[in-house]
Amino acid sequence: MTSGDGATHGFSMSPPPPTPPMRSVRIPEEVAKALESRIAGSGFATVDEFVAFVLARLSERPAEEPFSEDEERRLRERLRSLGYID
User: Fold this and answer.
1) What single string gives the DSSP state of each residue in 39-82?
2) Which residues contact 65 (CB under 8 A, 6 or more apart)?
3) I need a labelling partner for 76 at 20 to 30 A (CA). Which of 12, 14, 21, 67 fits?
4) Contact 77, 71 (CB under 8 A)
5) Distance in Å from the first CA to the final CA of the chain
6) pLDDT tens across 4-17, in order?
7) How far apart are CA 61 and CA 66, in angstroms?
8) Nearest CA to 53 among 65, 40, 43, 63?
9) How far apart are the C-alpha atoms of 36 and 15, rounded to whole Å?
10) Confidence band (pLDDT; 50, 70, 90) for 66?
11) Residue 8 pLDDT
12) In 26-36, which positions are buried (b, 16+ CB within 10 angstroms) versus exposed (e)?
């Protein structure tokens, strides 16, 4: 609260915290639509917000077990077929 002379009375006027750097992730449209339906009324304002939340929680958990060579090969083939890697 300020008085007419510009003084503050009991309130700190600190700037908001900086926004962290962001990256874009592309997902298929049908996945985005399904997520929009899923988050309706959940408190998440956007699909981006929900995906960021889920990925943050997922990244906090240690991997249960590394991929086997066959699983890694299949994952790479799938990502290549979707155009995510060359």
Assistant:
1) HTTSS--SHHHHHHHHHHHHHHSPPSSPPPHHHHHHHHHHHHHT
2) none
3) 21
4) no
5) 57
6) 555 555 667 888 88
7) 13
8) 43
9) 32
10) confident
11) 53
12) eeeeeeeeebe
Q: Cα 24–84–44 angle (5° rounding)?
A: 35
State the greatest distance between any 2 C-alpha atoms of the chain, in Å, as a whole number.
Answer: 72
* 5-9: Cβ within 8 A, 24+ apart: none
Radius of gyration in angstroms for the set of CA atoms belonging to the chain, rounded to a whole number:
22
- pLDDT given for residue 48 in this prediction: 93
Give the pair of three-digit tokens for residue 48.
């981006």
Name which residue leads in pLDDT, 2 or 18: 18
Would you say how long the chain is, in residues?
A: 86
Tell if the pTM clears 0.70, that is, is over it. Answer: no
pLDDT of amino acid 10: 61
